[in-house]
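dumping the sequnces here before i forget
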Amino acid sequence: MFRLSILGCGSALPTTKHCLSSQVVSLHDKHYMIDCGEGTQMQFRAMKLNFQRLGHIFISHLHGDHCFGLPGLISTLGMLGRTSDLHIYAHADAVQLFKPILDYSCRAIGYSVFFHDFNPSQSELLFENKGLKVTSIPLKHRVPTAGFLFEEKEGNRHIIRAMTDFYKIPVSKMNAIKAGEDFVTPDGVIVPNVRLTLPADPAMKYAYCSDTAYYRKIIPIIESVDVLYHEATFANVDLKRAKETFHSSAAHAAEIAKEARVKQLILGHFSARYTDETILLREAQEIFPNTVLANEKMIFDIDAKKIKNK
Amino acid sequence: MFRLSILGCGSALPTTKHCLSSQVVSLHDKHYMIDCGEGTQMQFRAMKLNFQRLGHIFISHLHGDHCFGLPGLISTLGMLGRTSDLHIYAHADAVQLFKPILDYSCRAIGYSVFFHDFNPSQSELLFENKGLKVTSIPLKHRVPTAGFLFEEKEGNRHIIRAMTDFYKIPVSKMNAIKAGEDFVTPDGVIVPNVRLTLPADPAMKYAYCSDTAYYRKIIPIIESVDVLYHEATFANVDLKRAKETFHSSAAHAAEIAKEARVKQLILGHFSARYTDETILLREAQEIFPNTVLANEKMIFDIDAKKIKNK
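..and the predicted 3d for all of it:
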């Protein structure tokens, strides 16, 4: 189960209503940040997230509203006494952009910051550990931009305690049973794993696609994800502006969600021009009903049971 | 009359209670910003200040909590269609710090940003126009730091309408009368200016001193100002920490206010460790009674009538 925390879902200009782009995907007590607009560290704190659990930051592109919060966050982590490494995944230019400010202002911090550059024009595996895989999603924007696909790995099967007790399975064998092995009794009888365990929780998938024009090439990559966050900067009435700025309308986002057969769509990256965003929601829901609007401090539990219920 | 708007008065670590350092001094419909920590543009907007009236930004020193809001603010001003110049007064290193990020992210903005460097180790005239003078105040901190003295210039005398009507003074002479000249009637009689006008409003003085250790050398520069904003990062119980970090206690701020015979003291730059800042207020008021605590979105009208009433 992923937990998604929305720190900011406004577009370029911060308003009194929305903060700049940032969100946190949490899995197994670790936080993975996506984008880091100005003010992200304040939102992170306001949402009572734990700075120590943050180890990896994925930056979609180098427009200020998606990355200008990095120097302040890095500096604050230093003041909080951090010692563990911080990994930032971004376009190669991020180093040129941020190194002078970090060299000057963060030279005394007690931990290392590693920039990992990637090529946003192709889908690449950016990060992998035993529970999670993060892959880039090439997007279509005014500057090189990538979204991110978070794929949970399938966990262990669930032990049926009554059965393992019945067969007196020793503790030393439990991990193998959870991993799917059959059990052989001292008499040589094979007990098939399906009698001892229930299936593992389904591995969940979350895709973040912002900023981008309507771009059908992402469909095979995000096919069938449980939750898709797709930018919806504009309403249909401003389609011309969406085209000029390489952004999407809410209807575009919904078209992508529909064709990729995702389970739920979250709209975000709202232009400051809409005081009432229900127009965006309505336009998307006409095409893809299971759509919601993002908002600051919203939390989505990306959990098989919850997503199915919709 | 100055109007002082507090955008942020927290210290290094932003909290859910306080924003990072920034304030705006307004005079004759122009805004002058002092410091620009991360999140300043959001606070500026939340306080309904007008971006078009902002032309000059004074940066006390290059610690992140006083300047990391610059790239976002500069970028936002560009997106809002600004065409007029923006002047930033800061230590010379500001260029090395911010130029890469501005060159990269703000190359398409339609206005020019000028960095004016100054030497924080001596008091210098930084800015002057017909209504205002801004001078630097050398402070004592871990890096080169200066405060700022804002001095209003004396305005025009106030016409006594009944008298100018009585003497049938033509409109063409009014500016000279306001400036203090006597009036000569067609018959050659000299009417002294004091019969025609009341004195101009007193010119006000405001001093900003943050960040700094207790530093008596500033006293002659800020002597008798109407309002002094002085950092008060720590309470007496944390005096050792204040010394180590080159910050002041609330009592230090009050000592400075008392010796400089200022009219009112505003405390700010509070450490995140105090959930209740009345301890700072109490410790300062024991030494200098006319003390108040700064807070986000507070507005102080620095006006002779109001300051005297206290």
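Chain B touches chain A at residues 12-16, 19-20, 38-39, 41-42, 45-46, 62-65, 68-69, 71-72, 75-76, 79-80, 93, 96-101, 104-106 (CB under 8 Å).
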